[in-house]
Design brief:
Oligomer: single chain
Structural class: mainly beta
Helix content: 10-25%
Distance between the termini: 124 Å
Length: 489
């Protein structure tokens, strides 16, 4: 075969094409170097817009179904490529550029744009591969609507009500439009002259971007205590000053720290005679406290109660008011140190009558009722009989055994095969020493209580609404008068 060569004109054309390709390649490289691609400035508004735009659409991308929605969300809103996963539930364990990851047990509130991840299950909706969804709307931190694809058999992206079964946790993206809404700082401190200390500060919500976490600091009396731009305070002379912290990105968000500067010796600790105490309503106890060191300039003690409806305190004398828990705090006069005593108020052991708040009738033991294999407890008009008296005996951890005072004996009992449940009857039975026969006494006020099952504290004793007024277990609600009993000696 005769060898042929391309004409010179063709060679010239190809040479120009190759030269043009090389020039464009260099131009693109230079452009990329001068103008690098940056991540999108994602906002909660852009997240909401993404969901609104894709309602009723079957989203396809690498991955499938619910994962496809997640992939497109990251790409369209944040300009990011989703981490590689084989199953939807694996999304929660992947690194998402430092975004906050919150397990189900620690979620306090939800926010628009949160990525909700479900663990594997065996149901029609959350299958063995898990599931992923987006938070579309919230009300007071609770989810109103989720945006999901392939939920309840619908292959298209749509809005659904909240569902929490098999929830693994959430991934909270960092949005550029999130600003501080809360600020907490050290509430008080005591300094010596020339002593310095830094005020700790926490901004909420947790997904505020770093660029918006700036705080400005100001002292109300810079001759007593001054503060620098990092929150470091220094005592200058004896007196008091208020340090105010203001979020730079939202100046409406502020917090204050009271600073006391002393010329003498500050307290270092407080000793208290008891760290825990159990009392019955109306009873009193006295505890003592002392300030260290012995030569502290101010060794006075200030006494406070965390809940005066449960227990009050005056100069160390504690008075129990009603059932519950209160923390009694003994604070050194200079505010620099304190110690505390936890006070638990429970019902005193004794014999009581129980009057139903809703009907005014008495709790009554049905002795001699032959038609029952066990003897029920029900409501009856007050008659002063022994059948309307019960002995309460504290066993442990706030649990009471309630003895039937009639000669037949027995104890108050949930009629069950050992697993307490809603709707089960209350009666008398031979003592078995387990939590089906023990109750928690919860005070509504000084003389009114609710009896809750010790085995399941979400259930309380109440009349069943029948003509005879038998008692049963219902869902606990402290404000429900049908569950409340006036306790009488």
């Amino acid at each position: 075969m005769k060898k042929t060569t391309a004409p010179n004109s063709v060679k010239r054309i190809w040479k120009k094409v190759l030269s043009w390709i090389l020039m464009m390649s260099m131009t693109i490289s230079l452009t990329a170097a001068l103008f690098p691609v940056t991540a999108m400035a994602a906002t909660q508004s852009s997240a909401k817009n993404f969901m609104d735009k894709n309602k009723g659409i079957q989203i396809h991308n690498r991955g499938s179904e619910c994962v496809a929605l997640y992939n497109q969300y990251l790409y369209k809103v944040f300009g990011k490529t989703a981490p590689s996963v084989n199953y939807a539930y694996q999304i929660y364990d992947r690194n998402h550029w430092g975004w906050e990851r919150i397990p189900a047990s620690r979620i306090k509130e939800y926010k628009v744009g949160d990525i909700v991840v479900y663990g594997p299950g065996n149901g029609r909706d959350v299958g063995k591969y898990g599931h992923v969804a987006l938070v579309y709307s919230v009300n007071k931190g609770k989810v109103v609507k989720l945006f999901e694809q392939n939920w309840a058999g619908n292959p298209k992206a749509a809005l659904y009500n909240w569902h929490g079964a098999r929830l693994k946790g959430i991934i909270r993206p960092s949005f550029s439009d999130v600003v501080p809404t809360g600020l907490s700082i050290t509430s008080s401190m005591t300094l010596k002259i020339n002593e310095g200390r830094k005020i700790s500060a926490t901004i909420t919500p947790s997904n505020v971007p770093s660029s918006k976490k700036g705080i400005s600091w100001k002292s109300s009396n810079s001759s007593v205590a001054k503060v620098d731009s990092s929150g470091q305070v220094k005592g200058l002379k004896a007196g008091t000053a208020i340090i105010t912290a203001t979020c730079s990105a939202n100046k409406k968000v502020t917090a204050k720290c009271s600073v006391t500067v002393i010329s003498g010796i500050p307290s270092t600790s407080v000793n208290i005679s008891k760290s825990a105490l159990t009392l019955n309503p109306g009873k009193t106890a006295t505890i003592t406290a002392s300030v260290n060191p012995a030569n502290a300039s101010n060794r006075s003690i200030k006494w406070t109660s965390s809940d005066t409806s449960v227990a009050t305190v005056s100069n160390g004398k504690i008075t129990a008011v009603k059932g519950g828990t209160a923390v009694i705090k003994a604070t050194a006069g200079d505010g620099n140190s304190y110690a505390s005593c936890t006070v638990t108020v429970i019902l005193a052991n004794g014999v009581y009558k129980l009057k139903h708040v809703g009907t005014g009738k008495m709790m009554n033991y049905a002795w001699g009722w032959k038609e029952f294999a066990y003897k029920p407890i029900f409501l009856y008009n007050r008659d002063g009989s022994v059948e309307q008296t019960f002995r309460f005996r504290h066993i442990n951890n706030g649990k009471f055994e309630i003895d039937i005072m009639h000669r037949e004996g027995g104890v108050m009992n949930v009629w069950t095969s050992r697993t307490v449940g809603e709707g089960q009857k209350i009666g008398s039975w031979t003592k078995t020493n387990d939590d089906t026969q023990r109750f928690l006494v919860t005070f509504v006020n000084k003389n009114t209580v609710i009896l809750r099952s010790a085995q399941n504290s979400s259930l309380a004793v109440a009349p069943d609404g029948s003509a005879r007024g038998y008692l049963k277990l219902v869902k606990y609600n402290i404000n429900d008068k049908n569950q409340q009993w006036v306790i009488e000696n």
